[in-house]
Structure formats: structure tokens, C-alpha cells
Amino acid sequence: MHPLVTQDHIDQFQRDGVTLIKGLWADQVDTLRAGVERNMTNPGPYAAENLHKGEAGRFFDDYCNWQRIPEFEDVIRNGPAAAVAADLMQSKQVQLFHDHVLVKEPGTSKPTPWHQDGPYYFVEGRQTVSFWSPLDPVREASLRCVAGSHLWDKPVLPTRWLSEENFYPDEDTYMPVPDPDAEGMTVLEWSMEPGDAVAFNYGVLHGARGNTTDHRRRAFSLRLLGDDARYVERPGKTSPPFPGHDMTPGQRLRDDWFPVLDQK
Description:
Layout: H1 7-16, E1 18-21, H2 29-41, E2 48-49, E3 59-63, H3 70-78, H4 81-89, E4 95-104, E5 112-115, E6 123-124, E7 128-134, E8 143-146, E9 187-189, E10 197-200, E11 206-208, E12 217-225, E13 230-231
Antiparallel strand pairs: 1-10, 2-3, 3-4, 4-12, 5-11, 6-13, 7-10, 7-12, 8-9, 8-11
Helix pairs in contact: 2-3
């Protein structure tokens, strides 16, 4: 077991679908900050601005940039995330899915909408984990996760963050997006320091408050896969789309695109 992981972490991750790993990237915060600045200066093809005209602040996100942002590749390949993920998922192998940057500048009141990551992806499996790590201290703008939502019978309908339109036409497969606060669900959130990470299953319903402070809220996310993850077809274009992947349902994700990581 990796020194950052305890049995309590594993038990909580399996039960609630989410746990907090203190100091996951504590020694690599400056590297990640440099990577985020490089990313924002030179956005990738999937970069998005998530505010309507006239809304205050800035909510930037971008993903799938690890191959062109050397700081991201360094942290992914040389940091402890793969070993920690293996412990939490109880998986022998850890495979990279993708990276994701989310930045809320000061005065950005828009929250990150409640959603599950899994329905956007072409991946299914019990052994999945996302790490969400702030690169600035967070109190009010931390990630919020609904405990146990990875065990729900139906997935939540994915929507587009800016237009709020449904992501897929097939609504029967999905449940409407709930309001966890109004419905009395158990919402877990933590005050966090730079380099701490919330680890959560792809099926966990999560969101984040707006950043109404006078400080930036930069966050780096890393999505990893375990032994049982398999390609699945969705009723529409997925996010990320990975055009031309040529995979078939039930196949392990091709490791030339989604490399198996060394566990350090």
C-alpha cells in the first residue's frame, strides 16, 4: 500500500465512492501550476469558456493535453497518482484516460453543475478514479460529492455546461439531474490545500460552488482506469470524443492511446 493511502481511505472510497488524499501532489504543485499556465496560454482543441456574455469572472476548462504539456506528463508518469489509484480501485493495473484543467478566476459566481463523469465517457467498469486537485487553497470553491451515488441504479443524464442542453437524445436510460441540497443527500466536501486531491469514482455525482473570492481557483484533474474498465458505446458523441479510436464494445482501451502507468 502506498504511504499516502490507509485502509480507511480504501474503505471510504469503496463505500462512498470518494475520499480525500492529503498531499497527493504536494511536491509537484509548482509543476502543475506551470502546466496550467502553459495550457491557458496555448489552449487545446477542446478548450471551453463556460460563462455567458455578461457573466462576471472566467470559467475555463480544457482536457486531453498531457501529450503536449510536458509538466502534465511529468506529474502523471513520475508522481504517486498511479500507485494511489491502484490501492483505491483495488486494481493491479492503472491506465491513463485523460487530464482535465478547470480554472475559476476571482469573482466567478457560476457553479460547476451537478453531474457524473461516467455518462460522458465511453468507459464502463467498477474500477475507475478521478483525482481533483486544487492548486490554490480552497474553502468555499471546493469539489462537492454525493456519497454513494456511484451505486445508484441509473446514471444521471449528462448535460452541456453552457447551453444546459441534454448531451444525448436517449433520455430513458438516464435519471434527471437531482438537487442534492434540496433532496437531503449526503454531500461531502473538504477545505483543501494545494496538492491535496479528492479521489472519486466516475459514477459519483459531483459539482462545485462558484469562486466568489478574490483568489484564483486552479484545479488539475486526472482520470485513471483499472482492470475491469472496458469500452462502451453511448447514444451519441462522447466527451472526450477521441475520434478514430477504432475500439469495439467490451474491448480494453487501446494502450497505445491510453498508456499503462508505472506505479511509483
